[in-house]
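Q: How do we represent a protein-ligand complex in a form that can be generated token by token?
A: Start from the inputs.
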Amino acid sequence: MKLYFSPGACSLADHIALHQAGLSFEHEKVDLKAKRTAGGADYTAINPKGYVPALTLDSGETLTENVAILDWIAHQDGALKPSGPMGHTHLVEALAFISTEIHKGFKPFFSGASEDEKKKAAELILKRMSYLSDRMEGNFLFGADVSVADCYLFVMLLWARKNELNVPEKLVAYRKRMMELPSVKKAMMHEGLV
Ligand SMILES: N[C@@H](CCC(=O)N[C@@H](CS)C(=O)NCC(=O)O)C(=O)O
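Then emit the structure tokens for the protein with glutathione bound:
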């Protein structure tokens, strides 16, 4: 199995989740501008969408999209999703929220947006993050245990820190707590981020 990633990009969520699940995998860096892998392969032949993440499974099938990859990882290790009959549904709910309402909300910070557009985006990100923060009852999104949704939210918090955005205090403490997980340390080290 191989994860295609770009350092510090959203693919870091999948990288952390794979370690958290204790799965054995390779990882290869992608040059997103040149659309080439570190090994020189044409990345668009691996993922025609041209963006990371992509996860090539041992079967040879390639999965794309954070929501799908994180969901697949949670299926490999049931401890990475909330328990109970509605656990999986609540996981998908959280992943969809992070993907469409938070991740996409960062777009102005990666494009040549105006300061006004960035200010509006920052306000919306704070509102979305506050929604999650207000509902967090334990150390992690679903309580005492880490889920794949935490891996995704953590990366969004790194982006918020990089762009000096306001986030709820509770999530600052949460980001620091996530940083202490061996899976996070390992993935960040492999991506050259620490
Ligand atoms: N819908 C995709 C979006 C992935 C995405 O935004 N990837 C970014 C990095 S965080 C990327 O590779 N951008 C480069 C590009 O689009 O060329 C997902 O959630 O997996």
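The domain at 81-181 is CATH 1.20.1050.10 (Glutathione S-transferase Yfyf (Class Pi); Chain A, domain 2). The beta strands are 2-5, 26-31, 36-37, 54-56, 62-64.
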